Amino acid sequence: MDITTVWEDLAWEQGGKIVYLILDGLGGLPDPEQGGTELQVAHTPHLDQLAQSSSCGLLEMVGPGITPGSGPGHLTLFGYDPLQYRIGRGVLAALGIGFDLKPGDIAARVNFATLDSAGKVCDRRAGRIATDDNQQICQRIREQVNLAVDYYFETVSEHRAVLVLRGTGLRGEIQDTDPQQTGRSPLPPKAQHPEAEQTAAHVGAFLEQVQRILNHEESANTILLRGFEQYQPLPSLVDRFKLRGICLADYPMYRGVSRLIGMDVPPPPGGLQGRFEGLKHHYGADYDFYFLHVKQSDSRGEDSDFEAKVAAIEAFDQLLPIALSLNPEVLVVASDHSTPATMGQHSWHPVPVLIHSPYVRADPVKHFDEFACLQGSLGQRPGLDLMGLALAHAGRLKKYGA
Predict the structure, then answer these.
(1) How far apart are CA 87 and CA 52, in angstroms?
(2) 3-class secondary-structure state, position 373
(3) Given pLDDT bands bounded at 50, 70 and 90, which one contains residue 388?
(4) Which of 16, 71, 126, 258 has its CA 20 to 30 A from that of 81?
C-alpha cells in the first residue's frame, strides 16, 4: 500500500503550521584535512541547540544507492513518491520562471557549456556566465533558429535556460545530450521510444542551428540538454494533504516544483536574508505550509569548495532565530540530497533531518550533523516518511480506524 494515500484519507484542515527549512545538498562526507563533514566543521550554535529539543535522524531520499536529483528529492520531502511522480528538470525549470506550460508541452533543461578544440566538454556551466549574457544569447537564438514546431527558449539564471517544444505528436522520451562529465562529447538527442523519433528530430534540428550560432562564443559555445519531460499537472498539496503552501525561494527550479504542486510562489525574495524576512512577512492565516529553500549549500558542494559550503551553512544558522521566533507547531530542517564537497556532485548518502514540535520525543543528539543524527530517535528512514511525520506532529491527521 502507498502510505501517502492513507495520509490523504486522514488529512484534515485543522491543526498547526508546518515550516520546512531545506538546505539543498546539505549532506557531506568527512574531509580528513578539514576534520569532518561540512556540518561537523561549521559553527552552528542555533542548529545544535534546536537539535537538542528535537527528534533527529537521517533520510534516504529515493532508495539505497540511488543518487537523487533536486526534483525527485524535493518531491519526496513534500510527500510525492519520486518513483511514481517522475518529473523532468525541464518542466520544473519552465514552471520556475513562470512559463505558461500547457499539457503536452515538452520541456528540457539547458546548460550553456564550453567545448574545447576537440569538441569535448571542458566546462558544463560555461564559467557560470552572467544572467545578462545568457539573455542576450537566448535572444539571438530565438531570432535565428527556425523549427517545424513552435518552440520557446528562455533564460533561467546564470548558465541555465529552458527549451519548450509545443505541437502535436510530441513525446518526452529523449536521451539527455549532457554527458554529465567533462572530457566527453555531447550526446545525440536519441529517441528512447519509437513514438519519440519525430521529437528527437526536432531537437536535433534545434541543436544543429544553435551550434552554428554559438561557434564563435568564447565560453558559452554549446548547449547541453537534460531532463526532457512532457508536462502533465500533479495533484496539489491542498488536494492531497489539505495544506495551503507558500514557497520562499530564489532559484527557479525550486519555485517550479512548488508551483507544480500548487503552492503560492511570490516574487523571488532576493538573498537568504530576504527569504527569512519573507517567511516572517507571510507567516499568518493564509498558509499552513511554508517552504524556505537554501541553494548555496548545494552550489558550493558542486564547486568542491568545502570552506564555502561551511560558510553557507553558518550563514543559515545565523538567520535561524527568525524562523524560531515564529514558534510554528512544526519546524523541519532537512535536505533534498547530499552534495559532498569531497565529491563535487550529488550523492546517494542519506541526509540529516530534525523535527521540532511540542510533541516530539527529544533524543540525546547534541550536534546537528550526519553522524550524530544517526543516533537520533528517527533513525534512518525513507525520505517519504517526512511529510507524514510533519502532518502528525502538527495535528493535521485524524485517527486511523475505530
Answers:
(1) 36
(2) helix
(3) very high
(4) 16
